[in-house]
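To make the argument concrete, we let one protein speak, a sequence paired with a row of structure tokens, as a model reads it:
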Amino acid sequence: MTSDVRKLPTGFGRLWTAQTISSLGDGVTHAALPLIALTLTRDPMALAVVTAAGTLPWLLFGVLGGALVDRWDRRRTMGVADTARAVLLAIPAAAAVLDVLSIPLLAAVAFLIGLGGLFFDTAATAYLPDLLRRDPALLERANSRLRGAQTAMSGFAGPPAGSALLALGRAVPLLTDAVSFLLSALLVRTLPAVPRPVPEVRESLLRQARAGASYVFRDRVLLGLALRPAVGNVAFLAVETVLALFAHDRLGIGTYGFGLLLTTEATGGLLGAGIASSLGRRLGTGTALTCTAAVEGLAILGLAAAPNPYVAGLALAVCGAGMGATMVLGPSLRQAIVPAHLMGRVASTSRMLAMCAAPLGAFLGGWLATTYDIRTPLYAAAGLLLAMTAVTASMTSNHRVEAALRAAAPADCPDHPASGARPPYGPPTPAGPTPTPPAAAP
């Protein structure tokens, strides 16, 4: 049987359910936490501290966290991380009931919840390819379903539910998210065990973390996959920083209309996640990634020039579709080609680069809007995305992707999709000499 008709294992269904429930809780807290903070203070800097605290773990411990995940049992790591997050959320919920809730407590809990998310997400990313035996097509299907559920729960269902639950009391949305983490932890415990990676020669944690980061920077395909979200975050945060002002001043959109405008982007994201596998098969993963990058840049260009809210909504939907497809194709390819013992470090390094780029994009957007006008950040973001497309096109070309997949195919599994004569991501390769796989980084 070809990989296209293989069924996802039963264990994936439990992993999908666990992450869907957790994403719903995340969406609830994402909407409720700033509103809870707003009941305590009107100081913008204090509110910013609570928001920023959740992202700090990735900036401070991203690569080290990946190195730890590569040492630990990944299924157990996911269970412990979710259980810990459930307990942590009970603390501010109890403080709210006792009327002793404070901004420092919210910031500390947001930081620790973010740290738990770092370990859970990294472990889940490393566990999935082991569960699916690094089958490229199955990884695309699985990531498409995971991404779609995450967008639906955290982008559509969670935020309005969080706002509604807050009306019942400040503790209610926090306890709801805690329950979602407990349910996720219970489901994770039922996941099938997978073989643990062969342990490396015992080295210091810092040396192992550095080896994982070095592996990304020395492999052109992995570096190209890491640059996409990093450069993309600079561009998208530059847009997001001024989008509300752009919508109000240039498009004449009020508060309700702005919420609908953001919904169009999430809708496009669902569509992009759904068609990602089909794009990969028809165009080849490398070409598909180049096309989605170009689509994102052109869509932001269309948003900058939009004469009315309808064109702006269409542009955001197209951009969301490109982002949704990219966030399925890129991680799926990375999971298929990275050795199991390095998966945690490689995934966390890529995520850390993306997280570090976000503040730069926010600063760039604010500076350009202040120095020039409100549309300048959008034009700059479009130019940045299109320039990135040209730079990374050769790094993640079909030729390089196919060579990386062949190099990663298990030697003892000749029927593995990545080891066949026909690449799983596109039309048959013309007859000719087999490309030499790139040398793996130490």
Observations:
- The chain has a mean pLDDT of 84.
- The radius of gyration is 22 Å.
